[in-house]
Every structure is written in structure tokens, then in C-alpha cells.
Design goal:
The complex is a heterodimer of chains A (557) and B (482). Chain A is an alpha/beta fold and 557 residues long. Chain A is built from 22 helices and 21 strands. Chain A has an eight-stranded mixed beta sheet with strand order 11-12-13-14-15-16-18-21, with helices on both faces. Chain A has a six-stranded mixed beta sheet with strand order 1-2-4-6-8-10, with helices on both faces. Chain A has a three-stranded mixed beta sheet with strand order 17-19-20. In chain A, strand 1 and strand 2 (30-35) form a beta hairpin. With 482 residues, chain B is mainly alpha-helical. The two termini of chain B are 40 Å apart. In chain B, 49% of the residues are buried. Classes of the chains: A alpha/beta (557), B mainly alpha (482). Chain A binds chain B through residues 40, 50, 86-87, 157-160, 169, 200-202, 220-222, 544-549, and chain B through 96, 112, 116, 180, 184, 189-192, 194, 309, 313, 315-317, 319-321, 338-339, 350, 359, 361-362, 406-407.
């Protein structure tokens, strides 16, 4: 059975009362994020999630838990990832699930799990919420990849527990959820040892795991509980998160799907399957900025930047997984640019407050999702829109953008403008470590400097075009036709080549671990996922568990 | 020059594998040897290392040669490397390489799999010696003490057998694993043995008999499956180990039977008609049948866990690769490939125990376990005949396979010994009725007093019908030197 073919709607919204696979236990400033996968709780029928193996459903809960720990628990300074099962930490992605999934599902699953793992590292780096990992029982494949997201990996030295990346020898695929990259780029494991490790099915345990830098320490069982607790307390003590603050509730996100129309409070999506296009409209703020940061906390999840980001995040995930044929996303905005800038200013003023910090980092992550989405993205800057500051990032994230020049007849909407804000110059770095404007102007530093001088000034079509901030400017005479032709043309190209081209053009400049994960590791993985050695009826993924070895085409390509 | 049948006793290590001309392996084993002797002295039978024990030592690997009896101090026992004779022109009997010549060297692609199987098997051998090391002090007779030590030295030899394979065929990794086999300790929190049942204590002699009956029988099944291996040195090693393992089965089988015999005899003599009248039976200084049943329940269920998950990719891989076969593979009449075959497996679906057909390759653990359960029944039948002949209605019975499990399908549920599901509360309430509790343990422990006089036996166990090596009843099987 094919997960995508059934078109079961995959819902990314969940909360701890619905978790099947995770639980969170709190111990003052330490939270224990415990993986205890329900073997019968798979997202679709056809496989059992044995040995703490996971599918997208398990990861959706993990993603939710990580998010909630950040927003709902300012008092938590350290999170310990651990297993709720006695004999296994985590066996990685479920092989039967991979075997029965379409290529598209595998790719999307992998992308989401990668994003979730990066969000764990983001919490450690930017939120003062340090993730540690307590590996008891084997951590194999995706299980070790999950452990790799932690800043400190502890392995119980019980002669049974091990870490391994057995994908290559066992399944003829790669440890594609960041495994190869984190090993070399994050933990700086020597490449030849990494080579040995990744071809040794049973992995490495005990002191060798430390010597090879695969884990940070091994701990005898008699000292296990105590040492894990101690490391967690130490990490929590280093946190700058406020112990006495109260978190906000990430309340259930309201969403209405009606045919091709998806409505959130602040985001609307209009799907047109015939034109293979989704128009995503983000609504600017209508409420004034809070009087104080306390007021912002009181508003909780309702405050505009957070509510907008949550809706946009869900819309992106929903469209990626559930609407694979809508290959073109058109970003629009509606609202008052000044109001957006006012919120940006509020976020900047209170940048060090825990909730504000979480909010901007969340927006950063949502924007990064767009960067790695395999859809053509076009931003249309029209009269009445509010591409300012934070929302201007949508235009810079797009593969191309067009701004409406002059006034539209018979329309009393304010003219289209693009307004830069401080937020465009450092708040929301891409995976390559640069801002979208830095990336855009990689070859023209003068343009970047000039843009900086324009902060706060609404730029009309001509100015925006002159400054290289948009791709096209069309006036009323041309707009409708030019846009129609552009979108129709775009939707006509091969989806594969577009995905490949966009993924290349979006990330010029320096490589980071993150860009290497998405651009190198997953690209190779996705190639392997298409190859008969992995996925044909006699390939390793299909043969896994049957006892029969795969038949390989021995030609090196 | 050994012909593979006689054993070379000239060197430090008796062997029939031509160690004299295999410098590399001989050196490796001689390097390992002192560590082994240290381990034996530290962790082998406590308190009787200087005693002279009437032990059998193999002097040849043919049926006539492998049982020569003499008095020996255990640390001076001739542990050696003994392989069953090579079968001329042997081919791989099953899996995808079926019909190809059996491997005399490890195929690179199966190296890790083979090493893992050998290490796990090897780990159980010293483990049981460690588990049983205190039992000498409470032996119910010199006969039993000798049997215990025979089992112990042979488990030690089985460790040698596995270590030889590791040294000979697995290079530096193999040597490292061989070293670790001496480092792990049964029941130690920090350095436990690899399998659960081998970290449980063997606190008393009834446990010892149950262990040798049930748990060593798992060893037998594993050895039987490995004896079929396409990797010929492993096959030959295991074939010879099985001849020794048979004695361990005998110790357990006859041991439990003698306990049962003594119990029914005492009941008859005292005129007790109700075997479940535990207090009255215990007043006779024998072990009541319900407690024997509880011990069976414990050891049987712990041992079932050793068979692993019912559905197992590792087992499927090992079979298809020609590494580990089925019980008596050579006697089975099918294609020995099992690609399209199915096998019925008991599974736990939505909290219910149901039988499902599963791919036969994936279900090999289940199949071996089924064969094991059948094999267990034979002894239970014999024990029951003793009870029946004595005129009691009580019958011992193997518990349901779902009972008291920590690994596999039934790990997540509780079931009684009949296989009826119980919730957590019911389980906690009734657990004491199924498994030995503290009071049972204390009672059995109170019976564990040593009997060192030749020909005498503790109150709770009957003498054997026949002596070892046909020795008379008053033979001094152990000359105790403290």
C-alpha cells in the first residue's frame, strides 16, 4: 500500500493528549522526552513500529513536543532524549514503511525529520534549552541520527548498547536524516573511521564509541541514572531561560478545509489543481502591538507574529505532504505594512525576552521551510499588500517576485510597496548562515549596502526594481497577462528539473552543515531512493526482513 | 600429526585441529589461556578447586574416545579444542548457497553475522559456570557435586570452542571479543552477560536442575541449529559440543526426576494423599510438587525469551545466508530455502493471542522454539509417570508460551500459565501462585545442606539408579580437599 496513493490526509497538528509515541516528564528545569513508540500506532496500515522505529506520525509528535517545550516551558533548561523501552533506544525509520512508501513520501518524510532534528539543535543553540541524549539499548540508523542532534550524547556501557548507522550494509541506502553529515561536520569524526562505522552493521559501543567521538561519554549501568541526571542538571544550570516564568499554551490551531480552500485566521490558501497552483495569502496584523512584553505573554499564541507563523508553518507542511501536485506556490500578503513593521519593532525591542526570542526563531524556521520546499515559489506584491520587514522575507524566499507598478483602476487599495526592516538584515538567517538579502546580493555588496539605507521607507515598484529587490515590475497594462503567462509557463515545466534547479539556485555561497544535509546528503539519498539496488522488487529495502539478500546491479554509476 | 580423530595432548592446549603447525592461532590461544585460568579461579566453582573430581575428558572425538574418566583437579582439567571429524565433500545444506561446498573460511559478507552468533553462544558458556559457582557448597551428594563440576568444566570447554573460532577466523576483532568473554560477569550490573536468563541467579539445586533441563536445552537447540551451518568449522565444533551437552540434559532431566521421586516416595510413606497440602509435604523435608511446578514455570518462561522475537530478520538472514539452520535441518524434507513457505506464529494482536501464518524465513525463531517446547515435553512426561506410578493425580505441566515473557510478542501482556490474559492487577495478585515467591525460596534454601558422605543423599532427592561410569553407589566421586 502506498501512503500517498491512499491520500489519507496527514495532519501535523497534535498535542500531548493525543501522543501515541512520546511522553514528557518534568523534573524542575529538566524535561525528559521519552520515546516509547506504539507498534500498532503507525500513520497508515501495513507495518508495525517495532523497537521504537518511527514513521512520519512519530516525528510529527516529536516536532510538536520540541515546539511545546520551547513555548510552553520557559522553566525547562535541559531536555533529555531517551527511550521508554528497556531493550532499545531507537531502531530508526521503519523499514517496512519506507519499503511501501512512494518516492515522494520518502522524500517529504526525510525532509520533515531533518527539519525537526535541526529544530532540536536550534533549541540548544538559540533557546537556552539544551538537548542531551541518554542512549540505553541500541541506537541504530535514525535512532543514532536522533541522538546526534543532542549536544551531549551519553551511552550506557552495558556491553549491549551501541550506536550504529547500518543503512548502507543493511538497506543499501544512506543515513539520510543528517547522519553522515552530523558525524563529519558536527562531531568531526575522522572520515576513515566514519567509513568503517557506516559499513559496520552492528555499530560501535563502549570506549571505542568515545574514542571515535561518536558519543561524548560512556557510563556504567551502576552510575547511569545518577550521571544522566547530573549532566541534565548541569546543562539546565547553564541556561538563561527564566525559571519562574510561565509558558504560553500553544492552543489548538484552527483550520478549515473546504474543497480547495484552506482557511486559518491569518493565512488563506486557495488551491487550483487545474493550474497546479496554491495561492497562499498571509494577512498582516489588525491588532495594535502589545503595550508591554507582559501583555504579549498574556496574548499567548494569539499574538500576531506567532499566530501568523503557526498558520503558515502548518499550511506549508500540509501543502507539501497532502498536495504534491500543486507545484507552484504564490505568496501574497494583505494588510498594512506599517503594522507589520510595528510588530517587528516590538520583537526587536524585546528580543532578549524568552517568548519573543522563541517567536523570532520560530519565524526563522518557518522561512527556512520555504527555502527547502520543492515547489516553485513566486511572490506577488500587489496593491494592498504588506511585504514589509518580516513579511518581505517571503518575497526574498521566492524564486522570483513581481511588484505591481502604479495604481490599479477602480481600486482604492494603497499602491504596492516593499518595505525593508531591520528584520531583513540578520533576524532570519537561511540554512547557509546568510540572510536572504546577503544571499541575493552575493555578487553585489553595494546593493546590500544600499538596501540597508532604505530601511523603513516604503519602496514603490520602480525603486524596488531599481534596487534589485524584485524580479519584475509590471503596471496595470501588463500585470494580469504577464503574471498569467509566467505562472502558466512555470507550471508546465518538469517538476523534477524545477526542483533540482531551484534547490541549487536558492543556496549560493557558503556551505554549512545544514545546507550539506539538504543539498548533498538528501540529494544523494533521493537518488539512491530511485535506484533499483534500493527500491526495486529485488532491492534491499524490499528484501529487508525477508532473509533474502538484495540483487545488486554491480555497475558503478 | 593429528588425523582429526585423536587429540594432540603434547602442547599446552589439547586439540584435534593441528594447532602445533598453526603458529598464529596457537599463539593467540596461549596468550588467552592465562586469562582463562584466572577467570576459572575467580569465577569457577567456589571452594573445590583443589579437590579431586572424577571427571571425563575427551581423548578422541569418535564415539568411543570422548569419555575417559579419571580424578582431576578442575584447574588442571585439559580444556581443549575439539571438532567433530570433517565430513568429506560436505555442502551447504540450506539457504541461497545450498549445494555449494561448505565454507572452510569465513565469507567476508557474513563475517559480522557469524561473529555475532558465535559471541552470543560463547557468552552463555562461562555465564552458567558463574551462575552455578556457589552450588558446590550445598551439593546434596558427592554424585551430584561431581555432575555439577562436570557440567562446569564442559561449559568451560565450550567457551574454548567458541574462542578457538574467534581466534582462528575473526582476526583482531575475534581476539577482542574473546577477551571480553572473560570480562563480562553474570548478574553484574555493569558488565552483565549478554542474555537475560544468564544473568539470573541459580540459588539452589532445584534451580540448577531446572536450568540444566530447560536453559541448557535452549543451548542444545542453538547448537543443533549451528551444527547445520554452512561454515564448516562452526558445524564441526557444535556437533562435538552436542555430545557433551547431552550429559547436561541428563543431569537436569534425572535431577528433577529424582526430586520428584523423593517427594512422592515421602508422601506415600507418610500417607499424604493431597500433593497440594504443601505444609504437610514440606514437613517431610522434601519439595512439594506445586513448588516444583512453580520452578518449572520460572525456568521455562525465562528460557523461552532466549529464542528472541518470534518474527526475526536476523534469523531470516542467517538462514538464507546458510549460517544457521533449523533443528535437524538434515532430517527435514523440504526445499531448505523457504522463500515462499509460511509458518504459523502465535502473535499478540490487540491484546489477543492469535495464530497467524508468517513467512517461514522470518519465523525461524518461532519454529526453533516450537521444536524446543516439544523437546521439553519428553522429560515432563517422564516426571509425570513417576507421580502417576506412585498413585497421585497431580501432573506437572509446561506453562503457556505467553506466560511471564519479557521478549517477543507476549512481552507487553500478562498471561496465566494457561495463556489466559490477565490485567496488571490480576497479575500482581496471582503471580505468587505461578512463580516461586520468597517463602518458597526460603524453604528450598533451608533444604540446601551439603552431604559429603559417599553414597548418601540429602533428604529431598532420591539416589540415581546407575552411577557415573557405572560406578557403585558408594563411589567417592569427589575427594574433597579444602
Amino acid at each position: 500500500m502506498d501512503a500517498m496513493a491512499t491520500r489519507t490526509l496527514i495532519d501535523f497538528r497534535t498535542d500531548p493528549t493525543c501522543y501515541k509515541h512520546w511522553r514528557i516528564e518534568f523534573d524542575g528545569p529538566v524535561a525528559h522526552l521519552i520515546m516509547d513508540v506504539d507498534p500498532n500506532g503507525g500513520l497508515v496500515p501495513g507495518y508495525e513500529l517495532k523497537l521504537n522505529s518511527y514513521d512520519l506520525g512519530v516525528d510529527i509528535e516529536l516536532h510538536d513536543a520540541v515546539q511545546r517545550l520551547r513555548f510552553e516551558h520557559p522553566e525547562v533548561g535541559a531536555v533529555v532524549l531517551r527511550s521508554g523501552k528497556d531493550n532499545v533506544f531507537c531502531a530508526g525509520a521503519n523499514i517496512r514503511m519506507l519499503g511501501q512508501s512512494s518516492h515522494g513520501h520518502k522524500v517529504n518524510f526525510c525532509k520533515f525529520t531533518n527539519e525537526t532534528r535541526l529544530s532540536i539543535e536550534d533549541a540548544t543553540e538559540n533557546s537556552g534549552q539544551t538537548y542531551l541524549c541518554a542512549v540505553s539499548g541500541p541506537a541504530a540508523g535514525g535512532g543514532y541520527e536522533l541522538a546526534l542532534t543532542a549536544s551531549h550524547i551519553m551511552l550506557i556501557d552495558d556491553r549491549k548498547s551501541s550506536v550504529s548507522l547500518p543503512e548502507l550494509p543493511l538497506l543499501a541506502v544512506l543515513p539520510g536524516t543528517g547522519g553522515l553529515t552530523r558525524m563529519t561536520d558536527k562531531r568531526r569524526v575522522r572520515r576513515d573511521l566514519a567509513d568503517v562505522f557506516c559499513t559496520t552493521e552492528e555499530g560501535v559501543r563502549g570506549k571505542r564509541a568515545v574514542a571515535w567521538r561518536l558519543v561524548d561519554e560512556v557510563i556504567p549501568p551502576s552510575a547511569w541514572a545518577e550521571t544522566v541526571a547530573k549532566r541534565a542538571r548541569e546543562a539546565a544550570a547553564r541556561s538563561d531561560r527564566p525559571r519562574d516564568a510561565k509558558g504560553i499554551a500553544l492552543t489548538s490551531l484552527e483550520r478549515r478545509i473546504d474543497g480547495g480552500s484552506i482557511r486559518y485566521l491569518l493565512v488563506s490558501v486557495d488551491c487550483d489543481s487545474e493550474k497546479r497552483r496554491a495561492v497562499i495569502t498571509v494577512h498582516g496584523p489588525t491588532e495594535p502591538v502589545p503595550d508591554s512584553v507582559d501583555d504579549a505573554v498574556a496574548q499567548g499564541a494569539e499574538i500576531w507574529p506567532l499566530a501568523m507563523a503557526r498558520a503558515l508553518d502548518d499550511a506549508i507542511l500540509h501543502l507539501r505532504l497532502n498536495e504534491p501536485e500543486l507545484g507552484l506556490w504564490v505568496f501574497r500578503t494583505e494588510g498594512d505594512p506599517a503594522a507589520v513593521l510595528a510588530y517587528d519593532a516590538f520583537l526587536e525591542t524585546h528580543a532578549t525576552h524568552w517568548l519573543i526570542r522563541e517567536t523570532t526563531h520560530f519565524i526563522k524556521r518557518v522561512l527556512k521551510r520555504i527555502d527547502v520546499t520543492s515547489r516553485s515559489v513566486v511572490a506577488l506584491i500587489e496593491p494592498g499588500s504588506c511585504f514589509a520587514g518580516t513579511l518581505a522575507e517571503l518575497a526574498f524566499a521566492a524564486d522570483r517576485s513581481a511588484i505591481f507598478a502604479g495604481e490599479a483602476s477602480g481600486d482604492n487599495k494603497p499602491p504596492a510597496t516593499l518595505t525593508l526592516g531591520a528584520a531583513n538584515f540578520g533576524t532570519y538567517p537561511m540554512g547557509n548562515g546568510l540572510t536572504r538579502l546577503q544571499t541575493r546580493f552575493l555578487g553585489e555588496p553595494q546593493s546590500l549596502a544600499k538596501a540597508q539605507t532604505a530601511i523603513g521607507a516604503p519602496l514603490d515598484a520602480e525603486a524596488a526594481n531599481d534596487m534589485g529587490l524584485v524580479t519584475f515590475a509590471y503596471d496595470a497594462t501588463d500585470w494580469a497577462d504577464e503574471i498569467r503567462i509566467m505562472l502558466e509557463e512555470r507550471a508546465s515545466f518538469s517538476p523534477d528539473s524545477l526542483t533540482g534547479m531551484e534547490a541549487n539556485l536558492r543556496f549560493p555561497g557558503p556551505e554549512t552543515m545544514e545546507t550539506r544535509i539538504f543539498g548533498r546528503l538528501t540529494a544523494w539519498q533521493n537518488w539512491i531512493f530511485q535506484r533499483p539496488n534500493a527500491v526495486s522488487a529485488t532491492g534491499a529495502l524490499q528484501r529487508y526482513g525477508t532473509g533474502q539478500q538484495a540483487d545488486f546491479d554491480r555497475n558503478r554509476v | 600429526m593429528p588425523d582429526g580423530m585423536t587429540i594432540d595432548y603434547d602442547g599446552l592446549i589439547p586439540n584435534n585441529v593441528d594447532l602445533a603447525t598453526d603458529q598464529r592461532v596457537r599463539k593467540a590461544l596461549e596468550t588467552w589461556h592465562p586469562g582463562y585460568i584466572d577467570w576459572w579461579k575467580d569465577m569457577g566453582p567456589e571452594g573445590f578447586q583443589q579437590s579431586l573430581v572424577y571427571l571425563r575428558t575427551a581423548i578422541g572425538v569418535d564415539p568411543k574416545g570422548w569419555a575417559k574418566f579419571d580424578y582431576v583437579k578442575m584447574p588442571e582439567y585439559k580444556w581443549g579444542i575439539l571438532l567433530a571429524p570433517a565430513a568429506e565433500g560436505r555442502t551447504i545444506p540450506f539457504g541461497k548457497h545450498k549445494g555449494e561446498p561448505a565454507w572452510q573460511d569465513v565469507p567476508g559478507e557474513y563475517r559480522a553475522m557469524l561473529r555475532r552468533l558465535i559471541v552470543v553462544q560463547g557468552d552463555t558458556e562461562p555465564a552458567s559456570v558463574e551462575q552455578q559457582r556457589h552450588l558446590g557448597a550445598t551439593a546434596p551428594s558427592l554424585y551430584d557435586m561431581r555432575n555439577l563440576f562436570q557440567v562446569n568444566v564442559e561449559e568451560g570447554r565450550h567457551l574454548w570452542a567458541m574462542v578457538y573460532l574467534l581466534h582462528k577466523y575473526f582476526g583482531a576483532d575475534g581476539r577482542e571479543e574473546a577477551e571480553e568473554l572473560l570480562q563480562r560477569r553474570s548478574g553484574n550490573q555493569d558488565t552483565p552477560r549478554m542474555l537475560g536468563a544468564f544473568n539470573e541467579a541459580t540459588p539452589d539445586w532445584l534451580s540448577f536442575f531446572m536450568f540444566t533441563y530447560f536453559t541448557d536445552r535452549d543451548g542444545k537447540m542453538q547448537l543443533e541449529a549451528l551444527a547445520q551451518s554452512g561454515f564448516d568449522p562452526l558445524s564441526r565444533t557444535c556437533r562435538f559440543m552436542l555430545t557433551e551437552e547431552a550429559h547436561h540434559m541428563f543431569v537436569g532431566d534425572s535431577g528433577v526426576q529424582r526430586v520428584v521421586e523423593r517427594t512422592v516416595q515421602a508422601m506415600q510413606q507418610a500417607g499424604i494423599t493431597d500433593p497440594t497440602d504443601i505444609a504437610s509435604v514440606r514437613a517431610l523435608g522434601v519439595i512439594d510438587l506445586p513448588t516444583i511446578q512453580k520452578k518449572m514455570n520460572l525456568h521455562f518462561s525465562l528460557t523461552l525469551d532466549l529464542f528472541g522475537n518470534e518474527i526475526s530478520t536476523n534469523a531470516a538472514n542467517a538462514f538464507n545466508a546458510g549460517i544457521k539452520g533449523r533443528y535437524r535441518e538434515d532430517k527435514l524434507d523440504d526445499d531448505h530455502a523457504l522463500i515462499d513457505a509460511t509458518y504459523p506464529v502465535l502473535r499478540c494482536i490487540d491484546g489477543q493471542i492469535v495464530e497467524q501464518q508468517a513467512p517461514a524465513l522470518s519465523a525461524l525463531n518461532m519454529r526453533l522454539r516450537d521444536d524446543y517446547v516439544k523437546d521439553c515435553e519428553s522429560g515432563v512426561g517422564r516426571w509425570n509417570r513417576v507421580i502417576e506410578k506412585a498413585g497421585f493425580g497431580f501432573r506437572l505441566k509446561l506453562p503457556h508460551v505467553a506466560f511471564n515473557r519479557a521478549i517477543g510478542e507476549f512481552a507487553a501482556i500478562h498471561a496465566d500459565t494457561e495463556g489466559n490474559l490477565l490485567d496488571g492487577t490480576a497479575w500482581n495478585e496471582r503471580k505468587g501462585a505461578f512463580l516461586p515467591d520468597d517463602a518458597d525460596a526460603a524453604y528450598i534454601s533451608s533444604l540446601m545442606v551439603p552431604v559429603h558422605e559417599t553414597g548418601k543423599f540429602a533428604s529431598w532427592i532420591a539416589p540415581p539408579r546407575v552411577g557415573i561410569d557405572n560406578k557403585p553407589g558408594d563411589f567417592e566421586y569427589v575427594q574433597i580437599v579444602q
